[in-house]
Amino acid sequence: MGSLPQVVEECFGLLKLYSDGSISRSPNISFDVPFINDNSILYKDLIFNENIDLRLRLYKPTSIVNSSTKLPIVFYFHGGGFCFGSRTFPNNHNICVRLASILQAAVIEPDYRLGPEHRLPAALEDACCALKWLQGQAIMHANVMDTWLGEVDFDRVFVLGYSSGGNLAHHLAVRFGPGSVELAPVRVRGYVLMSPFFGGCERTRSEEERPIDGIWTLEMYDRNLRVKLYSHGLT
């Protein structure tokens, strides 16, 4: 009999990679925050990539303060080191509820494929696909597009991302450029990167100066990079 597979990488006890290429994820990720659901914001889930069953969550205010003005659109890409996260997580859901309420905007939070099952740039491909989905909705006839999108302004789109989502926002800005001509009639007016997560082979100054006892240590940072780029035994 051969030896049992050994753990070669592990993240927070929630994700383990084994020497035979197999992966295990904990089904129990606990959160200390409740879902915000005060009926001021409506939301629903839609499929934006049927080929791989990727979904997004669309939010809109229950009542619009200025009914004569269409809602701007805010894309929100969640964080999680490219290995964790979902539109269904309460922390991500609550952020989108607050954005929709405070900004009086339609908020779109897409899921994207996670590592190590799906190596980068899979997440970026999915982020691009989400924007292309919105473009597809914009060019549809009014009686074909999703009814909620009849209330939005496709000329006022903003892309926000936190942590790994900030990384995606950066690459979307590079990919589509100023004015996002390729996405017409959708027009991205701005990109907001919140604590964007970047990594490379050489240490940056901020990495070298990071406190060794911080919440996110360099060892954890390096481990996360290895996990999301992991390929042994995977296709």
From TrEMBL:
UniProt cross-references to PROSITE patterns, sorted A to Z: LIPASE_GDXG_HIS
Keyword Hydrolase (UniProt): yes
UniProt keyword Lipid biosynthesis present: no
Domain (Alpha/beta hydrolase fold-3): residue spans on this chain: 74-222
InterPro entries in the record: AB_hydrolase_3 (IPR013094), AB_hydrolase_fold (IPR029058), Carboxylest/Gibb_receptor (IPR050466), Lipase_GDXG_HIS_AS (IPR002168)
Pfam family, any one: Abhydrolase_3
Similarity comment: Belongs to the 'GDXG' lipolytic enzyme family.
Name of the featured protein: Alpha/beta hydrolase fold-3 domain-containing protein
Organism from which the protein derives: Citrus sinensis (Sweet orange)
